[in-house]
TrEMBL record, chain A:
Keyword set includes Signal: yes
Superkingdom of origin: Bacteria
Species name: Allorhizobium borbori
Lineage of origin: Bacteria, Pseudomonadati, Pseudomonadota, Alphaproteobacteria, Hyphomicrobiales
This protein's name: Outer membrane biosynthesis protein TonB
Keyword terms, alphabetized: Signal
Entry keyword annotation includes Signal: yes
Region (Disordered): 50-297
UniProt biased composition (Low complexity): 103-114, 245-254
Basic and acidic residues bias locations: 119-131, 155-184, 209-225, 233-244
From TrEMBL, chain B:
Source lineage: Bacteria, Pseudomonadati, Pseudomonadota, Alphaproteobacteria, Hyphomicrobiales
Subcellular location: Cell inner membrane; Cell membrane
Transmembrane segments: 24-45, 134-157, 177-199
Pfam families according to UniProt: MotA_ExbB
Keywords, in A-Z order: Cell cycle, Cell division, Cell inner membrane, Cell membrane, Membrane, Transmembrane, Transmembrane helix
NCBIfam families: tolQ
Bilayer topology: Multi-pass membrane protein
Organism domain of life: Bacteria
Domain MotA/TolQ/ExbB proton channel: 111-214
Name the UniProt record assigns to this protein: Tol-Pal system protein TolQ
Subunit structure: The Tol-Pal system is composed of five core proteins: the inner membrane proteins TolA, TolQ and TolR, the periplasmic protein TolB and the outer membrane protein Pal. They form a network linking the inner and outer membranes and the peptidoglycan layer.
Chief localisation class: membrane
Length: 393, 240
């Protein structure tokens, strides 16, 4: 026994010595620096639905609009553009500046201004003619003008001595009109309502037309003659005017109120939104359509914000099956608009009521909601969040 | 119990350093378990040698016994030696036989019984020496892990107290204390596992040797009873 004991001790000492020397401190555990990767569960619609991009750009893996140059970032912008304000109107083409130049040339204002005036007057003439048509039938057009010519000549000067228009014959229509103004007795002229127009010196334009000058002569006679006669004369003159006006109107038929508005609008207005893009332009739609749904993790984050403020009282009887559905409208800052709607289903009646009111309190307390992606505002402007309160117990 | 300086010693985690860092109780447990391991292996060596020897002796004796050699002659050669195992049983039975015949045995049944007793006593003594200290192997095998666990628990307790003191839960502070505490369990297992294996092996071997002794005793008893019958039968006839 002694021998074996000695042997055992010797072997142990030997093994321990061996262990001490060979089994030194184990190698250091080198932990590689691992960076935490956020994993986001993305809805498939972000890939399958039309994404915001450029319709003319070549196709790429990720749709991206034409890069913008304005570095200023605008919060919550949805529409692409260089604007500082997020407008839905499309960006104005670059030809626009030319328009501005035309409009901006104010030096020749006097000339263009009369032109504009003349046009409206003509259009008004047309109106007259509409009224006039019935009259012409009655009148033997050829006769009245001939006899009257002498008379009208002297008269016109009387009422309109100051007017320089008579000299330029073309303004025939207008000279009579001023008279009409002075002489309320003449209904047809008043009807025409061209009172201010004649004063506006549209005459120069009409000068070239010789026939009109004759008409002008006739008109004065009309004015002097009896109402009927004058009316007939007017009608005749109107008819001639009508022709002229028609020709003029046919030339100007592409009148466009928008263009006029554009001309009148001298502000340096730019269309387009205020959303910036730095990526290379790639094929895509004007707007992201169905792709903007909240991803799982964004939804969870929203839910978490509510749950954090929700103190569910444990031990409510019949709270196991209760499902709470919160429907709320949010503005772009995450604030609740109006009254959030809380529906409860399942479980006992009292538990439902208790949980419903506590959920409403929690929702109110957790506003404004943070961390919602601004570019998906249309997805969470009205959001429905479901809860199972038994999970919170 | 002294507070262990964990954070400072955290750099060295070799075996010796772990042992030296350990608290007093843990050290005691480790040393005790080391002693148990030494004892276990001493027993293992001792028993292995003893059993090998015993087996060889049994083989040799049986060979001699069944060789047709005269039992008287065999007894004379063996009586002077210190015998173990089968030889001891044989010598005890022969001695009783001789004594009974020297004094003139009257009853064959009494003689037979005395011889059987003598053989049983010798056999019990022999099996006792075979199984001596095997129980300590069993004890080490079953209690070793617990003792090691006790050391571990105490060590972890101490290291947690030290963590509370250092006010840091950094793994570098926690780890060495736990490693050192676990060393106690490791030593306990190192001692216990061979002990359990050796106990099972040697108790089995001892059982086999005992069975062999019993078998020999029965056979020898049968031979002696035949001899008694042969020797005591003629006497009444001669007397008649």
């Amino acid at each position: 026994m002694k021998g074996s004991l000695l042997t055992s001790v010797a072997v142990h000492v030997l093994l321990l010595a061996l262990a001490m020397t060979t089994l030194s401190a184990p190698e250091k555990f080198d932990v590689a620096d691992v960076e935490a990767l956020p994993v986001d569960i993305v809805p498939i619609s972000e890939i399958t639905q039309i994404q915001q991009g450029d319709k003319t750009a070549p196709k790429a893996e990720k749709a991206a609009p034409v890069p913008t140059k304005n570095p200023k970032h605008v919060e919550n912008a949805e529409n692409m553009g260089e604007n500082d304000v997020d407008l839905k109107t499309p960006p104005t083409p670059q030809t626009r500046p030319k328009d501005q130049e035309v409009a901006a040339a104010p030096t020749p204002t006097e000339k263009p201004a009369p032109i504009q005036d003349s046009k409206p007057t003509e259009s008004k003439d047309i109106v007259k003619e509409d009224t006039a048509p019935p009259v012409p039938n009655v009148k033997p057009e050829p006769k009245p003008p001939e006899p009257k010519p002498p008379t009208p000549e002297p008269k016109p000067p009387e009422p309109k001595p100051p007017e320089p228009k008579p000299e330029p014959k073309p303004p025939e229509p207008k000279p009579p009109e001023p008279k009409a103004d002075t002489k309320p007795a003449e209904p047809p002229q008043s009807e025409t309502g061209e009172i201010p127009v004649p004063q506006n010196v549209p005459t120069p334009q009409l000068r070239p037309k010789p026939p009109e000058t004759k008409v002008a002569d006739a008109k004065p006679t009309d004015s002097k003659a009896t109402d009927q006669a004058s009316a007939s004369k007017d009608a005749k003159a109107d008819a001639k005017k009508q022709e002229a006006a028609k020709s003029a109107s046919s030339k100007q038929s592409d009148f466009n109120a928008d263009e006029v508005a554009a001309l009148l609008n001298k502000t340096d207005a730019k269309g387009g939104g205020a959303k910036r893009s730095a990526d290379k332009a790639a094929f895509g739609g004007k707007k992201t359509t169905g792709g903007s749904t909240l991803s799982q993790s964004e939804m969870d984050a929203l839910r978490g914000q509510i749950q954090k403020n929700w103190s569910v009282i444990s031990g409510i009887e019949g709270a196991e099956g209760v499902i709470i559905k919160v429907t709320m409208k949010l503005d772009q800052n995450g604030e609740i608009i109006g009254q959030p709607e809380v529906e409860a289903s399942g479980g006992s009646d009292s538990a439902r009521r208790t949980l419903q009111s506590s959920a409403l309190r929690a929702v109110r307390r957790s506003a404004p909601f943070k961390g919602l992606p601004p570019d998906k505002y249309d997805a969470w402007s009205e959001v429905v969040v479901n809860f199972d309160p038994s999970e919170l117990l | 119990m002294e507070q262990v300086e964990l954070a400072a010693a955290a750099t060295d985690v070799s075996l010796w350093a772990l042992f030296m860092q350990a608290g007093f109780i843990v050290k005691l447990v480790m040393l005790g378990l080391l002693g148990a391991s030494v004892w276990t292996w001493a027993l293992v060596i001792d028993k292995a040698v003893t059993f090998r020897k015993a087996q060889r002796q049994y083989d040799h004796f049986e060979q001699v016994f069944w060789s047709g050699q005269s039992l008287e002659e065999l007894y004379r050669t063996l009586a002077e030696r210190q015998n173990t195992g089968l030889a001891a049983i044989f010598v005890a039975a022969m001695r009783e036989w001789k004594k009974s015949f020297e004094r003139g045995a009257r009853s064959p049944i009494g003689l037979q019984m005395r011889i059987d007793r003598a053989m049983d006593v010798t056999m019990a003594r022999e099996s006792e020496t075979l199984e001596a200290r095997l129980s300590s192997l069993a004890t080490i095998g079953s209690a070793g892990p617990f003792v090691g666990l006790f050391g571990t628990v105490v060590g972890i307790m101490t290291s947690f107290q030290a963590i509370a003191g250092s006010k840091s839960t950094n793994l570098a502070v926690v780890a060495p204390g736990i490693a050192e505490a676990l060393l106690a369990t490791a030593i306990g297992l190192v001692a216990a596992i061979p002990a359990v294996i050796a106990y099972n092996k040697f108790s089995g071997d001892a059982g086999k040797l005992n069975a062999r002794m019993e078998g020999f005793a029965d056979e020898f008893s049968a031979i002696l009873s035949r001899q008694i019958d042969e020797k005591l039968q003629p006497r009444p006839q001669a007397a008649q």
